[in-house]
Write a structure and sequence with these properties.
alpha/beta, six-stranded mixed sheet
Length: about 140
């Protein structure tokens, strides 16, 4: 499992020209699911993200979590994070099969509910247009 997480002021996702998800201050999360990933790994990653302290406190130090600031999360499925780019043409053979990846993606979304003020998501398998107002910019890559 690989995640690219961006701290954002806002983010939104569209499918076929219609907005399907929008958040304010929080995280835009791009989630790649690999063969061999597990529900337990998704649970651990959701917990890790919820506990990350990357929002500024009154002194400007990154000491606050998303929960501390009422942060929201937008979750986007992105199998391309699993690309093997050793050749000029990326290979996606490390990505989980779509049926399992969708199950794990939906499980991850459920694990984020209750940990964030608002949870929004894209549409699994769809061509999406994502807009994010990256704050910082502050971008992390998490693997697990």
């Amino acid at each position: 499992m690989k995640i690219v997480l961006q701290r954002v002021n806002s983010a939104a996702v569209e499918v076929d020209g219609a907005e399907v998800g929008r958040i304010g201050k929080g995280y835009a999360v791009f989630l790649g699911i690999a063969e061999g990933d597990t529900l337990a790994a998704a649970d651990k990653m959701a917990d890790k993200i919820a506990r990350l302290r990357i929002f500024a406190d009154a002194d400007g130090k990154t000491n606050l979590s998303a929960k501390d600031v009422g942060g929201e999360i937008l979750i986007i499925s992105q199998f391309t994070l699993m690309a093997d780019c050793t050749q000029n043409r990326p290979s996606f053979s490390n990505a989980a099969k779509p049926e399992f990846a969708k199950e794990l993606y939906e499980h991850f979304i459920l694990q984020c509910e209750g940990r964030f003020a608002r949870v929004a998501s894209g549409r699994f398998g769809a061509h999406m247009r994502v807009r994010a107002d990256n704050d910082g910019p502050f971008t992390l890559v998490l693997e697990g």
